[in-house]
Amino acid sequence: MGSVLQSFQWLSLFFLIISVNVSAFKIPRLGTWRRTKELEPQIMSSSRFPDDDLKTFYYTQRLDHFNYRPDSYTTFQQRYMINFKYWGGAKSSAPIFAFFGAEVPVDEDVNYVGFLRDNALQFNALIVYIEHRYYGKSIPFGSREEAMRNASTRGYFNSAQAIADYAAVLLHIKKTLSAQNSPIIVIGGSYGGMLASWFRLKYPHIALGALASSAPILYFNGIAPQAGYYYIVTKDFKETSESCYQTIRKSWSEIDRVAKKPNGLSILSKRFKTCDKLNKSFELKDYLDSLYTDAAQYNYPPEYPVKVICGAIDAAAKKTDILGQIFEGVVAYMRHRSCYDMNEYNHPTETFLGWRWQTCSEMVMPIGHDRNDSMFPPAPFNMRRFVHECRSLYGVLPQPHWVTTYYGGPDLKLILRRFASNIIFSNGLRDPYSSGGVLESISKSVIAVTTVNGCHCLDILSRKQNDPQWLVAQRNAELKIIKGWIAEYQADLLALNKQIEAPVPES
């Protein structure tokens, strides 16, 4: 009876989440790679691990690292993976590259994030991938339904617990492999990049350094401008094609005009070949909003999706009207399909449901578009509405100030200059989330590496033969910095060992 009730509660939450007006939650998703995987097989690794290279392990992880109540000692199995192929071994103090999983099962990141395996050989590095709690197979309470059932079980689902998990796993690995002198470099992208930078700040005794790719750590508590994300999306399209930008900008009012006609929604449904008839014009506009932001955020070379969309929109100008042009852009990006699912970006996947909780609790990034020079209609972020809908979903209030309270944010340059070290913040300036990133170096060892043409997390994706030179240069700059950290560490270790071994003079 209990399991039936739990299943009912889970389904009730599931349907409530997907029924809540998505407009209050229009925080563009993070992630190291596009979730519409069938659209880009070219970014997957061309040299995927053979089965005997990647070993899967499970660590018995504590549920709550910050309490001493009896239930805090409850455990769950946390998945991590290790590739030993390139490691020089503990005796040589060879480094450990540790990738921090984020809001997706870690085995999916293994296929796309190639930075570790592309460079492990030259460092003789051990490669470790650690899965984030509540994702993939690292689920507390026995099942995802039980783990997400209520506020009490979801309460352990946060970033502080996640990086404490990573600390425990990494110490366990070093102990198991007798690798106490192997320096650890933590690597993450997007939300995982935020975790990597925060980990270096909170656990400097465990991680020698961090590479935080496309980590928008300033998009909290009003530090970055709310309209920054959509401003860059607009800039990407406008710089690609002025006429394309103007067409998209005019299309929103045209959609509303047609929608007001008798059978207007049926007309729009037919023109955009929607899989289900539109119930309101917002469904189409939300889909297009997601499509444009997705293309800008993951504007990978050499295809450059923004260029693909604009090329199709501009090419159709002489043969159709504005809505026809917009549809041609959809087809160019999503490819020819029998129909187009207006909920494609809102399906209640594991990532969608997990990340919605995280944004409703602590990861509150107030992103909106209200600038006159945006190609999107005005839609400023409404904190009051956001709080109300989060509370209706989960029964808890969001904590929009907690990230900056716990990790820092205001006066970042002044503060980190004094106590932080060995962090690379890498950003591509065509990435909309770079508007919340660290774009200027803070000190000699807290370094910003940027590229004018880069997009979201591109530097840590798998290397390809046709990578543009600016991307190769970005990765080389990051590797040079990491080599410097490790060389300095090895020199310090050698000096310390000599000091320990030196005979003590007799008094």
What can you tell me about this protein's structure?
The chain is α/β, with parallel strands linked by helices. It has helices at 2-19, 106-112, 115-123, 144-147, 151-154, 159-176, 191-202, 228-240, 242-259, 264-271, 281-297, 305-315, 322-334, 350-361, 383-394, 402-407, 412-419, 469-501, and strands spanning 54-62, 75-83, 96-100, 126-130, 184-189, 209-213, 423-428, 446-451. It has an 8-stranded mixed beta sheet, sandwiched between helices. Helix 7 links the parallel strand 5 and strand 6 (209-213). Helix 6 (159-176) packs across helix 7 (191-202), helix 9 (242-259) runs antiparallel to helix 10 (264-271) and helix 12 runs antiparallel to helix 13 (322-334).
Gist of the model:
With 507 residues, the protein is α/β, with parallel strands linked by helices.
